[in-house]
Amino acid sequence: MSNAKNKAVGLLALAGLEAYQESPDEEYMNEAQLAHFRKILSAWRTQLREEVDRTVNHMQDEAANFPDPVDRAAQEEEFSLELRTRDRERKLIKKIEKTIKRIDEDDFGFCDSCGIEIGIKRLEARPTADMCIDCKTMAEIKEKQLQG
User: Fold this and answer.
1) What residues contact 97, with CB distance under 8 A and at least 6 apart?
2) Banded model confidence at residue 6, pLDDT cuts 50, 70, 90
3) How far apart, in whole angstroms, are the C-alpha atoms of residue 43 and residue 144?
4) Contact 82, 55 (CB under 8 A)
5) What is the pTM of this model?
6) Do 52 and 89 form a contact (C-beta atoms < 8 A)?
7) Could you tell me the CATH superfamily of domain 3-147?
8) Could you read off the pLDDT of 19-53 as tens digits, one per residue?
C-alpha cells in the first residue's frame, strides 16, 4: 500500500469514517462531503493537540538533573527532537484550522492556482491540500529548480 494511501486510511480511521463514496450525479463539495472533511480535520486536530499535551506532561515528568553529562546530553537531545516534532505539528494544526475555515467559507476542495476540483481521493489522502496534483507537481518542480 502506498504511503499516501496509508495516511488516508489512518486519517479516516482516526475520524471513525470510511472512504467517501461519491454517487455519479452528486455535486462536488456538497454538504455531505464538506461534513466528511470537517470531521476528518477536526479529529486530526484533536489528535495533534493531545500529542502536544502528552509531550508537555512527559517533559515535566521526565525532566531530571542528571549528574552524568552524557545522560544529561541524551535527555536534552531527546527533548530537542520532541520539541521539533511538536513544532511541526503546531504548524500543521494551524494549517488544519485554516482548512476548516475554508470549509466554513465554502472555499474548500478547489485548487488555489487553477481553480479546478482537487478531488475526493486526494483530499482524503491530504485533507489540507490547496492545489490539484498537477499544480502541486509543477510547484515542486519549480522549487527544486530554484534550489539548484
Assistant:
1) 45
2) low
3) 33
4) yes
5) 0.80
6) yes
7) DksA, coiled-coil domain (1.20.120.910)
8) 899 999 999 999 999 999 999 999 999 999 998 88
